[in-house]
Structure formats: C-alpha cells, structure tokens
Amino acid sequence: MTDSLRARREALLAEPGLTGVAWCRRYAAACDTWLAERFAAAVAGDADGGRGVALVAVGGYGSGEMAPGSDLDLVLVHERRAPPKAIADALWYPIWDEGMALDHSVRTLKELRSAMGDDPKVALGWLQARVVAGDAELGAESLERSLSLWRGRAERWLPEVAAAVAARHDAHGDLAFLLEPDLKEARGGTRDLRVLQAVARVAPGLDMSLEGAALVGAADVLAAARVELQRSTGKPSSRLLLQDQDVVAAALGYPDADLLMADVAGAARTIAWVSDDGWRRITKTLSRRRGRRRGDRPLEHGIAARDGEVALTANADPAGDPTLALRLAAVSAELDLPMAATALDRLRADARFPAGTWPAPLRAALVRLLATGRPGLHAVEALDQAGVWVRLLPEWGPVRNRPQRNAYHRFTVDRHLLEVAAGAARHLGRVTRPDLLLVGALLHDIGKGRGGDHTEVGIGIVEALAPRMGFDAGDTATLVTLVRHHLLLADAATRRDLDDPRTVALVADAVGDAATLELLAALTEADSLATGPSAWGAWKASLVDTLVARTRAHLDGVPARPGDRSLSAAEQALVDAGELALVADGSRVTVAAPDRPGLLATVAGVLALSGCTVRSAWTRTEQGAHMAVLVFEVAPTFDTLPAWPRVRHDLAAALDGRLALGRRLEEREATYGGRGRPTAAAPPPIAVVTDNAAATAATVVEVRCPDAGPVLHRVASALTDAGVVINAALVSTVGAEAVDAFYVTSADGAKLDDDTAAAVVAAVRAALDPPAAPPPALTGPR
C-alpha cells in the first residue's frame, strides 16, 4: 500500500457509491492504519521499543468518523521522565507533510488530569478517546483515568459543556433554517450529535437511545452532504453555500437542491430535537439531585406534572381522547415544562384523530396550544418529532421541512407557519376572533410545496380543511379571505399610493368588513416579522398602519380624500427653501430638489455610485412649489455608509451635467458587480406590467427583477427616456428581488394608452435585461 495518507483518502473519494457515515468510518480506519504504520516507524529506533508511549485519538477523530477535510486530534501519552520528543516529531511532521490539520499534545497521565481540569473542551474530547497505536496497557489506563475524572466532576463540567453548546448555537444559528448552513457547527449539526453521544457516557438521566433509526438516518444525511461538499470543493469547510448545493444534490442523486435541503432540514431538526431534549434531561436530573423527588401532581384529565415534566397518567387514553395530545402540548407550553419521553412514546403509538369533522373540544385544544405563542413552538416540535402533528393535519406533509432558499425567508415553510402563529398570539387582544387569527396564521401558506400559485392552492385546501375542523360557513369564508389576501396589506402599503382613494377602495372591497381587516392587519405584522429581518420595519409598519386606518374609515362610510398624507414639518421646510438639499439620519436619506425629468434616476444613480443599496424609496412632487421630495432607506453595499456632504456634492454635479453618471456607474459595475454573495438559490425573473385600474389619475408600472446593481436608476432612466412623467415611486426590496411601483402619466398628464404602455414595458425590460453584445466582426483573410 502507498505510504501517502493523501493518496488513501483520494482512493476513498474515488470509490463509487461510498459516501455518508460509511465513508467517514472508512476514512477514519485508513487514518488508524496509516498512523499505526507511522508509529511503528517512529519507535523503530527507540531504546525501549515504544514501551510507555501510546497514541490516542480524541475529539472528532476519536469518535471513529472523519470527513475528508477533518483534522486529526491526537495525544501522545507517556510515562517517561522526559517527553518522547523524537517519537513525537516522527509522528507530527509526516502528518503536516500530508497537508493535514493537526491538533496535538504530549502528556503524562498526571498532566492529562491537569489539562482536563483546566479546559472543558479538552475534557470533552477525552470522552470520545480511543487508542490508535502503542502501549495498549498505558492507553487503556489513560482512557479509564479520564472517564473516572469525568464521573467525579460531571456535575461541574456538564453545565459548562451545555453553555458551550448554547454559545455555538448562538454563533452559527439553526441548521434547518439557514440559507447556507454549517453542517457541523450549527444547531442540529453533526457536532451536536457527537457531543451528546460523548456526554451520554457520564450524564445522569440520559437514558434515551442515541441509536434509533431516525437519528442514525439523520446523521447519515448530514454526513453525506458534508462528504460530497468537501469532495466537490476540495476544501475543509462544512458550510454548504448556495453555489455548491446543486453540485452536492446531483452527487447524491437528488433531482434538485430543494429536495436535498429539505432532507438536510429534516435531519437537522431531528438532531436538534434529540440534543435539546437530552440536555433538558441532564439539567433536570442534576437539579433533582440537589432537591427532593416529588410524586405526580394532577393537572387536568389524563395529565400530571412529574419530576419537572408533564406526563400522561396511567388512565390517560390517547386512542380514545383526540384532545389529549394537544392538551398535553398546551400544558407543556403554559408551564414551560418538557413533555416526558414516555408520554411522547405513548402518543406516537396510540394517538388517534377523527377522519371527519372535529369535535369542538379538539378545535379548542388546537387554539389553546397556538395561543401559548413562542413556548408552543417547542411543544409542537415535540409532537412533530413524535409523528403526531402530521397525523392531526395530513395537509402539513408537503410543507414539512420545505426549504425557501432565499435570504428573505429565514425558515422552512412549516416552521414559518408556526412562527407566524406564535407572533399572532401577541395580538389576540386587538381582534374580535382570536381563534380565526391563530388558525389563519397557521394555514396562510399551507399551499406551498404543491406546485402552482401557493395562494390559490392554499385557498382550496382551507375551503376543505376549515369545515373539517368544525368551522361554520361564515368562519370558513373568513379563513379563506385571510389566505387569499395575506399579502394584500403589505403589498398595497408598499407598492401603491396611499394618497389615491382608489387604493383604499380596492383594499376595502377585498377585505369586506372591519373584523376581517383587523385580522389581516395582525396577520400581516406577524407574517412579516416571521419572514425575516428585511420584511418589517418602522417604515413598512407606518405605511400599513396608515392603510389600515384609511380602510377602516372607508368601511365606516368615511370616503378617502386625495392628498391625505402630508409632508412632515422637516420635509416641508426643505420644500419651502426651494433648492437642492440632502439630509441623512442614519440609513434614512431625504432629498429635496427642484422637480425635473430624470430627477429620480439621477438621485438613485448617485446613491448607487456612493456605495448605497436602496432598500426602499418614496417620492412625491409638490406641484405648486415645483419641488420634489425623495425619501430613501439605504444600506451600505460594503461596510459603511458614505460621507453625505460628498454625496450631496456629487448629486449637484450630476444634476448640472458635470458628472458623467452613466459612465461612472458602468465602471463601478465592472469593478464590483460580481462580488456580492448570492441571496437566493435562483435569481427571480424579470416582470414588467402596467395597470390603468389601480390608480385614479395615473398608470401604475410595476417592476419585479433581481436586486442587482443600480436597478432603480436603470428603471427610472428608462421611464424618463420613454417620455413618461414619474409622479410617484414606491420602491422596496424583497430578499433577492426588487419590487418597484411607479405612478406615471404621459407628458400631458393622462394615463398611458395601450401603445405607449407597451413601449414603456419594452424599454424597462431592455434596461434590466439588455441583449448580449454581438461578437466582433471578423477581419483580415479567412
């Protein structure tokens, strides 16, 4: 066999069909063999033939599984007067020559005890230790001493390990819900399982099985993805970037990366659940050791508190009482106590739910659970891991672990639905029908994952599901309205002119009544907050509040009036000054300038040139003063916002024709255009549409396209060049997508006719997706 460990690894990487945990174990065994050979060579010239020296694998390598990019964690244990430096050098240098990362140390048994006591990470590594080569008796003694030390100090060390696990989760996030997760370090990653398997050797109360089929399968999914990632990139990173997901999916035989990421999410949730549950049990047992064990405390029919958990009583009947699972979960959330493993096992085996219409107590139990808010998330996750939740709601299957591979959505579809329901629970006091709010929140995106428009699909599902839940025809109609219009308020508030009475009238016609409006308002906020940090903010909240207030007034018989929204005092002062002004307050930038064709395009271009990404924008023209006010929410393209006096100087130069804005933007794009990180698995398509019915006195041009480069500058320039007047613009960024609405008229103030509208659409599309340059003409003899 070749002397190179690298060659042995490459041979394994080239072996067809070998991946996942099987590959990791084969590679660890190859490392064992190679290190044993190196050890034999290292002690060949030793006077004692290597007696009193043992090579021990610890940490990840000690677990017996190695990914292609894993490092070697080794300890050379000895009981000699002087450290065996020659043996150590003969081991470490060949490893470095192989290009492998190495975490190494040389210790006596006494030094081992001291090192473990000083560093819980070192101590944890020894719970996974095994002897690779050398003095077997000494190696076995080192393992026994480390285990004995753990048994004596577990009550002190285990909380320290738990704190380190929590800190790692905070640093790396939830693997199941990340766009580009770290398969090893994130919550639910391979390290969580490895740590739990290690502490299971000494942890009190951790009598759960860590070898169940679901957990073994989850571990193999993550191991397979990690092996293929490192195989394809040739790098040791365990972070599964968007650019690598399709390659990894293809290598593992998935039709597309969405299915891969769904399996990764499911595996991560299984591991995270087992890890969280294991640490809760450890903590509970440690606390109980310091206190007094108590017997059952009855809570309600079939449910009791027992040793810091909620459990089922002996006479509880999961098969005969369909409310039992949801009531147990609700009690768990209300008291912030975990459900006992025995209770979950009984529910897994016996819980039954009606195939027909639900009895009223079952619907009430669901609403009770959802009303607990965030504590209910863990309770539902427990039911989900036990297979009970999808048994209750078979419609949940297609959304379970369904990825949304873009930076806008931070959760899988199923977790998003639960997060929205938890957020909606904070608004129960502002609606007259809290039950409809909670159930509507739970089901608003239930149509995703089935193909087609998810709203239309969701409507069909809720039309059938709501009556089965026991809702009457009126309540079912309200729930259908919540699904149909769950995006209405956010879309109208950010993409339509709130000063136009047509906007308010259209929203009022859609919602129908004030009770439904208040439900939609609460759902909109909860949905946005659960979507991601870029989906809700003070600007969007104020627009939605304004729209809701005006719609409520309209429903009460008070017609909206044009121009209800006035400038702030500060904005009015800028208009009154009658000259160019730029005022920045953090990320909010207000520009006032004499109105002129192309003003919006110029300001947007200067902001882009200054290193700003426009996240939202609002414009308004004060006709009598011939001034325009433009308000932008911006973010730095790189690290910091620009010096605003310089931006104002550049803007004045651009407006005066002293700054070649178009050429400078082209130069910037050529330099920086390809440096951004991808924010979605696939770029959104370009869509440009016009609507003459959405506004009273203007045509609305709605543009959706990838948020790449100076989009607002390009679109506004195209509109100006097409000869239309931009009266207002509402601009927003939705993850990787720019979603902009422009209120335009012809030069004489009329709505656009069909021919002009078609020309505008073509001009905007050409600006966003210019045709490829033709190849250069051939010259000279052929």
Secondary structure: elements and pairs:
Elements: H1 5-13, H2 20-42, E1 53-57, H3 59-62, E2 72-78, H4 85-97, E3 102-108, H5 109-118, H6 120-126, E4 130-134, H7 136-172, H8 190-199, H9 213-233, H10 242-251, H11 257-290, E5 297-300, E6 303-306, E7 309-312, H12 324-335, H13 341-350, H14 360-370, H15 375-385, H16 389-392, H17 413-424, H18 434-443, H19 454-469, H20 473-484, H21 488-495, H22 501-511, H23 514-531, H24 538-555, H25 569-577, E8 581-585, E9 588-594, H26 599-609, E10 612-622, E11 627-636, H27 644-656, H28 661-672, E12 687-691, E13 699-706, H29 711-721, E14 725-734, E15 737-745, H30 754-768
Parallel strand pairs: 2-3
Antiparallel strand pairs: 1-2, 1-4, 5-6, 6-7, 8-9, 9-11, 10-11, 10-14, 12-13, 13-15, 14-15
Helix pairs in contact: 1-2, 2-4, 2-9, 5-6, 5-7, 6-7, 7-11, 8-11, 9-10, 9-11, 10-11, 12-14, 12-15, 17-18, 17-23, 18-20, 18-23, 19-20, 21-24, 22-24, 23-24, 26-27, 26-28, 26-29, 29-30
Looking at this protein, list some descriptive labels:
alpha+beta; disordered C terminus; 51% helix; 782 residues; eight-stranded antiparallel beta sheet; four-stranded mixed beta sheet; 30 helices
Please explain how this structure is put together:
- There is one protein chain.
- By secondary structure, this protein is of the alpha+beta class.
- Helix content is 51%, strand content 13%.
- It is built from 30 helices and 15 strands.
- It has an eight-stranded antiparallel β-sheet, sandwiched between helices. Strands 3-2-1-4 form a four-stranded mixed β-sheet, with helices on both faces. Strands 5-6-7 form a three-stranded antiparallel β-sheet.
- A hairpin with a 2-residue loop joins β6 and β7.
- α2 crosses α9, α9 packs across α11 and α29 runs antiparallel to α30.
- The protein is globular, with a radius of gyration of 32 Å.
- The relative contact order is 0.05.
- The C terminus is likely disordered.
